[in-house]
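This section describes the prediction task in plain terms. A model, or a person checking by hand, is given the sequence of a single protein chain and must write out its three-dimensional structure as a string of tokens. No templates, partner chains or ligands are provided. The sample shown here is typical of the held-out split.
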Amino acid sequence: MTDAAHMPGTMPNAYQPGKGNLSKADQDLVARRQRALGPAYRLFYETPVHLVRGEGVWLYDKGGRAYLDTYNNVASVGHCHPHVVAAMARQAGVLASHTRYLHEGVLAYAERLLGHFPAELSHVMFTCTGSEANDLAFRIARAHTGGTGFIVTENAYHGVTYAIAGMSPSLGSGVDLGEHVRVVPAPRTGGETGAEFAAGVLTAIRDMQRHGIKPAALIVDTVFSSDGVFADPAGFLAPAVAAIRAAGGLFIADEVQPGFGRTGAAMWGFQRHNVLPDMVSLGKPMGNGYPVAGLVMQPRVIEVFGAKARYFNTFGGNAVAAATAMAVLEVIEGEGLQANCAKVGAAFAEGLRGLAKGHAALGELRAVGLFLGQDIVDGEARPDAARAGWIVNRLREEGVLISATGPKGHVLKIRPPMVFSVENVAFFLDRLERVLKAG
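The expected answer:
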């Protein structure tokens, strides 16, 4: 799910506000924020950005300066897309109610969304956030399997509810993992990726069984974004999925970040691996910033849960959420954004590899569509989190917003709105080269 780079403990030097040249007005705003919101919130960048509006791939501060957004997958079809805004406002002016009343709009969206999934995934339940979707998947998996054990990767992020925060190691050492959660090494690039990842899952399963814990599920973000972006080779997830199912557990594909066409090759990240999940969680990009999320599943997995428990979410899947999400889907389909991700993503990857020939700080690049992970390394080709943080902050000064991720905090995480263009790529590469030359 959400990038964990702004979480405490992951990247200690990149997001410490107050070091830069803030205006007196913004210093006062930071102080007000700290008084009103408390100590658990974090701001991006050494010098925080005071944003007031967005349009397409650009965000604007109060002085009118434009920043190229190469980070916010939430605005999947671009900030304030007029078709989405109009649909949201139109429905809000008519009815904003929940799913316990009949409403054609909610069902029309559910049916259209499910049309983008394999036929076996034919139920959808709506929530407000990806955290809620994963929490619901957690409950359903336990009810279906009778198990309590969950397997996640070593720097995974899946959400902020109590149960799901306990399955999100990227939140740092201040958030304890769940008692029955087992962590496995993230996949790595190379031909043995599938076998190695499956071996880690098998080790976790055996450890659970040795301690009398029945496995419930393996849950992964299908591009392993918080682990540093690992998408290739396509198909490497299949052995691990087979392993968890052989142990009686389920496979949950967290598509909050890679879903809705971002990979270019497919609508959903799991499709690149030729696997069929038992459940698929969706989140932020679904509503282009409006709080709507969901859990898509095979009907058999909810039989026990559905027979024993009611599920209701006051705002999840309400009429406004459905209208907004429908508009997002219409834009993705109508503007060919999946194809755009493939085309522009390929140009982006080519440009970064070309830039790396002249700059040793650019290490390995892992990319699929408009989801790229660029390693930042030192002179010995070792992960360099301090330099990555420096680059993030210097790019902010050059008018480009980006973040870093990975267990060592050294991976530039690039996932712009899906309306990104080759011209936007050129702008980014120009600014990155300026920063690299300056450093």
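For orientation: Confidence is low (pLDDT under 50) at residues 1-19.
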